[in-house]
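W.,

You were right to be curious about this one. When I first looked at the sequence I had no strong expectations either way, so I just let the prediction run and decided to look at it fresh. Below is the sequence, 753 residues in total, followed by the output.
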Amino acid sequence: MVRIAGLVLMLALAGQGVAQEPPAAADPVAAVDVFVGSDDGGNTVPGAAVPFGFVNVSPDTTGGSTNGYDGKTPVTGFSFTHVSGTGGNSKYGNFRVTPTVGAVDPRNLVFARSNEKGSAGFYAVDLKGQAGPIRTELTATRRAALARFTFPAARDANLLIDVTSAVQLMGNGPRATGAEAWFDDDRTLLGRASFTGGWNEAPLTLYFAAAFNRAPIGFGTWKATRGTLALQPGSARAAGGDQRTDASVQLGGYATFDTRGQRAVQVKLAVSFISAEQARRTLAEELPDWDFAAARGRAEAAWRDVLAKIQVTGGSADERRNFYSALYRSHTMPHDVSGENAWWRSPAPHYEDYYTLWDTFRTLHPLMTLIQPERQRDMIVSLLETYRHTGWLPDARIAGANGMTQGGSNSDVLIADAVVKKLGGFDDALAFEALLKNGDVESDDPINQGRALRDYLALGYMSLNETRSASRTLEYAYNDFAIAEVASALGRKPEAARYLKRSRNWRNLWDDRLKCIRPRYADGGWIANFDCDHLYPDNRTAWWDAPFYEGSSAQYSTYVPHDVAGLIGKLGGEAGFVAWLDRLFDGGGYEQGNEPDFLAAYLYIHAGRPDRAAERVRHIMANHYRPARDGLPGNDDAGAMSSWYVWSAIGLFPNAGQPFYYIGAPIFSVSSLHLEKGRRFEVRAPAASAAARYVVGATLNGRPINRAWLTHDEVAAGGLLELRMAETPGDWATRFTAPPNPYLAAIDARPGK
């Protein structure tokens, strides 16, 4: 009788929409494949790290991309700093450690590999040396890493640390301008290196402290070029390493061990932007002992904590592996370097390597706002501190320098997303001041910060006198909408009205005949011989100078996130809009491997066609994401590409900068999101399958809804969204009503007003 009553009570609670605790899921750490996207353009880093940790100790290979890695070419060693999923020129790859046997020689270090393995917070591989395999095992903390090398029995097993190392991408990586290294005692090597070049060419200086778990039989420093090698045994300080005229110049340290008895040697190394002594303190703080298993366990626990923010059940094994690998990659950048702010020495949280907001504002940061709100607050505080001390909110930043700005001032959207979702925890007035500077002040360096506003303010669009004129016009228009939202939230109605009006500037480049965005000259004339589908209208034009940055007009024309109703009107109504989107997808114009049309599949919802959105989204997930080394559709872009998958797989998707989420086509029967203050929001779709991809009915907390969106408040409050899935579409949500935006409620935002 008690069991029946309990069952009745559970059913009653479910009927009221109270989310019950989901069944225990398998360990999400076991579902992560750290190699997904590491080859063929994904550019992810397979090495050991903790969530948002600056140190990501990973193998560097001769054929690596910006991640320093590929799965086929020889390994040159294991460096401690990397960026993940990025394109462009390389950066970091510092303090590379390479194990060898024999005479100390840091030149031409290349090793075949076998038995390569990895998991969240751990990496291992065998390097094939002439004396036998050298087993390498790596784990990490936020600013340090611990490596264990198991050598063959030898009297001359070496660990070589290249202080001047950097990831080189066809010679376009950072170049050392100087370095030094010295042994403080026979177990402790300290040093620093300065660099210029690579992605964002601003100078960079990093310090390090390295410690060995046992005394070597020999140690010292070295200098090398292709043709020369000079060893300095003992603790004498070595300096030099200027690579600006000779890229082969290297400087570093070495330690030699007798491994005929004890074959394992451990080294731990910490990095710092401030000093070698700071790095030494970090070693004591983050790696106080030599217990490799314990350090690995702490790293794994940190990953288990963040992966548990979203629990999923159902779906296939590959889909779960795709999902948790994507959620893992969504927690890699920007890097938390709090305590390492060498630029204005502030105790505030500090993050570097926003590489770049142009990618991550769309999917990654809205995900953090929902499941990692404290992290997102800290990131915004860091961005605002950057504005306070540099004069601009960066759209990109790495290693202490702003740049490069690919499109608009998309920090505006990131700030608006936090404001309209009531994230809190940062200075609203300072944020608004920074947004107004983005929107009103001509940048002194628009490649690296702010906007080029002269044409935009005078003409209502950027003319072909400017680089990336058409794509930046579209982004500036949405940036203006974001500023209008923040102004409205702060009660600044005149500014809200002014920026809301400016947010319609995208229409000034709309060609009614071609039905796409078309670049214009300053005199108002259209660019001639134009085709909406071509990536670049003039193939004599460099990619940076083209009217559309990394995309075509067809792709960018979908980027009107704030005025989809206006876009539908330009296309003659809902039927014309659906046909227009169909041409983009069916004609091969859509590009999942780049961000500009990330929202395109979900725009069908605005025309009352959630079924078409489901078809497109499911096709993208099934055909462009695989749990394999080449399993991503393009650069992961610091987790932006992965976050797209995370959202789509659970059946929700953000329109970044606005307080609502689209309801999509979940692939899991249960997705449980653990939110702030112990709340939980659950999406249940018991019948979801490869065939059952259409939502034909929905209830929110037990009450039927006939709309394919939820407000942020509805999700953040916690609750239960139940979706009835079917193999054929129904009439659910076929009449679209726009989500409310209370922050603009006092201003008439209807198209044409």
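Here's what jumped out at me. Residues 1-19, 749-753 have pLDDT under 50 and may be disordered. And, maybe more interesting for your project: The first helix runs from residue 2 to 15.

Coffee later to discuss?

I.
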